[in-house]
Amino acid sequence: MDRNPSPPSSDEEDERAAGDSIGNTVYSKHWLFSILTKLIEVISPEKSDSNLNHEEVQTELDEEMENDICKMWDMSMDELVLSAEDPLSRVHMDVALFLQEFNAPDIFMGVFAKSKCPRLIEICVGILGNMTCFQDICMSISKDDNLGQMLLQHLCDSDSPTLLETSRLLLTCLSQAEVANIWVERIRENPSVYVCVCFIMSSSTNVELLIKVGEVVDKLFDLDEELMLNWIKNGSCQSVGQSTDDSPEERPDFKIVPCVLEAAKQVCSDNPEGLDVYMHILQLLTTVDEGIQAIVQSPDGGKETWILLYGLVCDELCQPDDPPIIIQEQKSVLASILSVLSAMFASQIQQEYVKMRKNMPLIGSLIRILQNMEDCGKRSFDNSKKSQPEETKKSGTVEEDFHLKILKDICCELLSNMLQELTKENILEGLNQGHLNEQKCSCAFQNLLPLYFTSVESFLEVLREADQTLADSLEKHFPSLRLQT
Q: Is the CB of residue 257 less than 8 Å from the CB of residue 221?
């Protein structure tokens, strides 16, 4: 980061000869130890005996001290960690091990307990986050329950940079199988985490922070269904430090779905990756009945969720002027969105917002997605055949894109359900607006048959009333339909 100076090195030959370098790095043990000592002095009671205003010392870092601690932060960073065998990774591991050996986590705990300086706390959390990239150190930090509780409390911090570093640390720990359960259990037993996370999602405008918090929630829900169910059912909890005699109206009252939606709306225009994260959270919610009910039984009956997802599919993603290959970039987020829409459509068929007269553009978008997948599939097949050995070419077998297959399955399920609900008036409207035509109907039939034969047959029956010529033409191209009628 530009704000952080470059780490110092131990260039003096006598220092290197005396063993001052940290491991195989050029960094000085003596210098790093001196910074840890300064950290202890910053939070020591004696500091308040100086002529400086105590509050100023606590809330602000002098420039030299900030530069030194930032150097230590840079020394522990893990951006260059490529593999255990890579010599570059050794630099950061040696520094992290040195910090662990000299009880840096305990010193940081003292900072968390006594300091009121947001910048200092942010840097210390950031260094801890870098240290947790290494398995043994991560295990040691994770097992320290006092430190773990202090870190969770920082999710309720008012300082966005500190919140970001705390979220990064949590995501790093949750991504390591050896310690993930420790953190899941700790978070499950700490209801304030729910309140803090919901508050961030519902109120923050910091897109980078929203994405990282979203990744933490996504990982938590993926790891532990029980925790997800608890958060779905959780309507109101007390935040950290809140008095138990507060009146109910003063307590935070967060629902998980509105908070996720608010965060999704904030990030959708700025960061596709962030949108993907929040759409996957919604998809995970629909994997349990309680989650679907939380979506469709919200005060607006799920209308806000439907409108947001409908707009993304019809107006933002996979548009008519996009090249078909765009489906490869958007397959993950589209699969999540369509999965949620499918669950909502099946649950809310009587709701006004899912009435087919309003949703013909969605049917057109679903067919366009299938058309793009067909185009990408043909190109992938041709390219694969060119690069495949002769035996594979002769067999004609080319591995199908797994993620595209998932998207196709979800898309077909939603499309088949929607086609069954169309009336003659809906179809006429779709034909007039260009959402339906012979080419698009053929694409839909090609993908839906034979699995969704009943849906296609039902649609074709209504189509005959709206446009007999088009129905006859489709029957001609799909003999299996003609044989059944």
A: no
